[in-house]
Amino acid sequence: MSEYRLLIDTTDEKGLVYNISKILFNYNLNIETNAEYVDKEVNKFFMRTVISGDFDKTQLLNDVRKALPEDATIKLSKNTKKDIVILATKEAHCLGDILIRYVSGELNANIKAVIANHETLKSLVEKFNIPFVCISHEGLDRQVHEDMIIQEIDKFEPEVIVLAKYMRILNSTFVNHFENKILNIHHSFLPAFIGANPYKQAWQRGVKIIGATAHYVTSDLDEGPIVAQDIVRVDHTYSWTDMRDAGKNVEKVVLSNALGLLLDDRVFVYGNKTVIL
Amino acid sequence: MSEYRLLIDTTDEKGLVYNISKILFNYNLNIETNAEYVDKEVNKFFMRTVISGDFDKTQLLNDVRKALPEDATIKLSKNTKKDIVILATKEAHCLGDILIRYVSGELNANIKAVIANHETLKSLVEKFNIPFVCISHEGLDRQVHEDMIIQEIDKFEPEVIVLAKYMRILNSTFVNHFENKILNIHHSFLPAFIGANPYKQAWQRGVKIIGATAHYVTSDLDEGPIVAQDIVRVDHTYSWTDMRDAGKNVEKVVLSNALGLLLDDRVFVYGNKTVIL
Amino acid sequence: MSEYRLLIDTTDEKGLVYNISKILFNYNLNIETNAEYVDKEVNKFFMRTVISGDFDKTQLLNDVRKALPEDATIKLSKNTKKDIVILATKEAHCLGDILIRYVSGELNANIKAVIANHETLKSLVEKFNIPFVCISHEGLDRQVHEDMIIQEIDKFEPEVIVLAKYMRILNSTFVNHFENKILNIHHSFLPAFIGANPYKQAWQRGVKIIGATAHYVTSDLDEGPIVAQDIVRVDHTYSWTDMRDAGKNVEKVVLSNALGLLLDDRVFVYGNKTVIL
Amino acid sequence: MSEYRLLIDTTDEKGLVYNISKILFNYNLNIETNAEYVDKEVNKFFMRTVISGDFDKTQLLNDVRKALPEDATIKLSKNTKKDIVILATKEAHCLGDILIRYVSGELNANIKAVIANHETLKSLVEKFNIPFVCISHEGLDRQVHEDMIIQEIDKFEPEVIVLAKYMRILNSTFVNHFENKILNIHHSFLPAFIGANPYKQAWQRGVKIIGATAHYVTSDLDEGPIVAQDIVRVDHTYSWTDMRDAGKNVEKVVLSNALGLLLDDRVFVYGNKTVIL
User: Phi, psi at residue C152, to the nearest 5°?
Assistant: First the structure.
């Protein structure tokens, strides 16, 4: 018997929990876990219920729809592996962490392809029998390059696109094409040191903590809704490359954890924020 | 309009959320926040709903009772300051942290008294116009001493008793008299170094992390349900007194945070565990 | 027999450790602890040696001076309590934490006075028999107000001035008058949310981590050399006031820890950085 | 010009730093970094100096030897990749993390072989062109099995043996054969839940924090000197397998960090402790 995740995102109003739980009760479903959250500030209601049982999906969705405000977003997501595509450049730590989880059965996803703008990671990716596609940006107009990547990604119809240290800025065409599907790892807290070498800036500033932030990509670079953050402590004995290396540990764990949350349908996005249920 | 916390702890069964939300809906209550948790392993259901509105408390409790399994524990707790009593010995850090929160209006409690087995903290406590009662254990049989403390505490009918570094072991008479009401701070993780000077043991062992655990007191010393834990990093340059001092920072923050959770009725106890909603 | 801390900050060159250790050996001093650090990037050498023994302070300083490059800064600091002055506004958490450490003998300092621009904390401070001076800024030109504070502080000749949530920006006259003596606590990492209500901004941004930074004050507001940083985890269930309250725990511990480092002469400042030995 | 690490571990006495720095000065060596530590409690002196320059290694070692107490341990270790052997069983997370660092050039080591008592990890290891040796323990006496592993390891003459979730207890013959060379990762703090399924025990206890400890292996199982520790936060919503998965993230990062410290010759062992310089 499969499990399904019923995901609801709607304007709040009195009786929502009552109305939804009534339907689930009438369908005689098993509720494996249930979590809801109301943001009173913006009057939004979020719910994630994991259900199992024998039921007609279309009919359930119809019944839930009828019980909710018109603006409700409702999704019934099966508890199976999601297809994902990974974008990378040259660095192996985030990609490698995902690959090891993949090969040891810890990742609830099928990696359909790794796309990079350099050949550097080809040999690593192919060890795992995953298609590696290099789309170099050399000599290409930015828009042309992105369109080529979009086309390549679209072949795989992924549910999540992971930027595992993909070091190029993405235009809004790209971001809008894959709205709320792109997960990025940022080498810092947000707000953060801006510009070419953030670890060098952090080192010059003598920070005692290095952070990492996994977030959805919106057209505002490095400004999308935050999914996960963590830190590592450093001190004056760290050179800026030591800080960068310490940062890698955090980056990879934060990105992989955030990816796990997305694959489990635990992240709701609204405004510039997330609710994680 | 006051807020109430409806707290339910019961055997799980199908339709619980539906049945409860139906009642709340029929009473036309505002649901400020709602959280529930089911422990499938032991088939237990926990719920904490903050409600506001105009309603008959007794009738609501009756209606909820009828809708739940027989073994259900139901509580309607008003969102007001709870009375607490603090037990201490000589150390000021945990007590002091609670006093500063108290005086600056951050503590959702009335401190009815501080009871200690030494005079050391008298002057500190009295600065805050809180009754300080010294009940020395000198020359007293353990049971006699505890009975005197029980009698003193009972005068204040506190909802929570905080052991803020009270350095004496409590008998089961005491623990049972105040069942699920006593919060202790332990100078370590659990399980932990056992015996006279845990920080010295930790130092001898060369640990790189010092922890602290706030937990309910059960008749099994230092073994009650955990409410909160945190850590601080140390290294080989720390003497054992440095480790103890580093530990104090963690102890006071962990204890105060745990106390905050109790005062907000966010902690459910079952078996040797807690659920925090 | 007293302990002294020999503090050296100089351009690096070959043989420094040899030359200094030769002098200390010839004086037959006990070396309690010794730590040095070289920043190769800027060719700077830092050393903190705790010595004990019977010796002529002036002569030792002279001999060390002769053995070091001309730009060397040398200090011999006795291991005794330093005089400090605290500036505050209305919030009690950071001040309160320092007061509790003070009263329980954990603070290696004499608090000469607390100066505030509001009366709010008067009653708290006077509980501890510490002079409280209110210098309201109402109706005063900023420069005039600061000059009054400078004059008041100067009476006490403190070695450290602690801004324990002093909520006003300090002019460069003030900062330069107390160069490398002012310790501030910042409600965030640096770089950080800028402007009126950083916690509200953090909340709007949906951050998962709240930080705090203790730093020396330079004329660049919130941009001085960092002494200590720490974080606390938050999630979407936190309102912005919850985030602020969570932040208070971190702020007070970070500030008190940083203050401890200053009182132990463990912090060297250079450029916009610190070395902590 | 190569860098060397001069590593000294000796009884403390007056003038040690002076005597050693004199020799280094007379050899006209560049001191890249220098760190020392004295444990006053046991009167032990530790020093790690990174030197570069043109010098006669044997002569330098002789001169240093003459300047130190008789019990001194002195080592001159070249800054090159060390040979290591990894032992594993079935779990991929720790091994995988090391492999990814290895392939991306972040690991300062040559992995000579991975030895396991199961075939599970064979395909992963061979992707990286590293010899995989399966030595099953099935039907073998424990001592016989270990002797076979010892023989296999000895072929590679490794400087470090990493137990990357090797799930079998090692006899004292094994431990003594590779004294101070075996690094293990433990799924908890130390002291810890003991026995078959520590994560299940931690879950039953309702812990709020999961830790991991990397330590040298001594004949006392899970009781050797600690090199590194870290934690991850968990809550009541975690099943014991969720706790185990959360623990994996910590385990791999702690083990890889500890391994990095060993490869950099930064860890000194004495008694049941480490000093990390």
Answer: -65, -45
Pairing relationship of beta strands D3-11 and D44-52 according to DSSP bridges: antiparallel
In angstroms, the CA B225 to CA B261 distance is 14
Which residues of chain C does D8 touch, with a Cβ-Cβ cutoff of 8 Å? Answer: none
Sheet of B182-186: strand order equals B132-134, B109-116, B82-88, B160-163, B182-186, B209-216, B226-233
Record the tokens describing residue B191, joined without a space. 């399980």
Q: Are B81 and B109 spatial neighbours (Cβ–Cβ below 8 Å)?
A: yes
Tell me, what amino acid is at D123?
A: S
Q: What is the CATH number of domain D82-276?
A: 3.40.50.170
User: Given B189, B228, B235, which is nearest D276 (Cβ)?
Assistant: B235
Residue type, C277: L
SS3 B188: coil
Q: Give the nearest partner residue to D225 out of B206, B227, B272, using CB atoms.
A: B206
Looking at chain D, which runs of residues are DSSP E strands?
3-11, 30-39, 44-52, 73-78, 82-88, 109-116, 132-134, 160-163, 182-186, 209-216, 226-233, 267-270, 273-276
**Beta strand B182-186 pairing with B160-163:** parallel
Q: What is the spatial distance between Cα D101 and Cα C123, in angstroms, rounded to a whole number?
A: 58
Q: Can you list the positions of beta strands (E) in B89-174?
A: 109-116, 132-134, 160-163
Q: Which two tokens stand for residue D160?
A: 């470090």
Encoded tokens for B160: 């929570």
Contact A204 C272 (CB under 8 A): yes
Helices marked H in chain A: 16-26, 57-67, 93-103, 122-127, 142-154, 172-177, 198-204, 240-263
Query: 């000198």: which residue's tokens?
Result: B138
Task: For chain A, give percent helix, strand, coil, nearest 5.
Answer: 30, 30, 35
* Architecture of the domain whose range is D3-78: 2-Layer Sandwich (3.30)
Domain residue ranges of chain C, discontinuous segments joined by +: 3-78, 82-276
| Burial (Cβ within 10 Å: 0-12, 13-18, ≥19) of residue A215 | buried
- Condensed to tens digits (0 to 9), the pLDDT of residues C63-97 reads 999 999 999 999 999 999 999 999 999 999 999 99
- Between CA C127 and CA C145 the distance in angstroms is 26
Residue with tokens 């650090």: C37
pLDDT of residue A214: 94
Neighbours, chain B (3 or more CB pairs < 8 A)? A, C, D
Tokens 């709607």 appear where? A10
Q: Contact at 8 Å (CB) between A134 and A204?
A: no
**Predicted confidence (pLDDT) at residue A35 exceeds the cutoff of 90:** yes
Interface of A with D (CB under 8 A): 33, 91-93, 96-97, 99-101, 103-104, 106, 124, 127-128, 237, 245, 248-249, 253, 256-257
Nearest to C96 among B33, B104, B245 (CB): B104
Interface confidence (ipTM) of the complex = 0.90
Contacts of D91 in chain A (CB under 8 A): 104
Residue pLDDT, tens place only, D7-49: 999 999 999 999 999 999 999 998 989 999 999 889 999 999 9
What are the pLDDT digits (tens) for B218-242?
887 557 899 999 999 999 989 888 9
Catalytic, out of D12, D39, D222, D245: D222
Query: Around Cβ A172, how many Cβ atoms within 10 Å?
Result: 10
Answer yes or no: do A31 and B17 touch at CB < 8 A: yes
At D220-273, the pLDDT tens digits run 755 789 999 999 999 998 988 898 899 999 999 999 999 999 999 999 999 888
Asked whether B80 and C77 are in contact (CB, 8 A), the reply is no
Q: Which amino acid is at B11?
A: T
Question: Nearest-CA neighbor of D235 among B161, A4, B39?
Answer: B39
Q: What is the dihedral of CA B213, A252, A47, D235, to 10 degrees?
A: -10
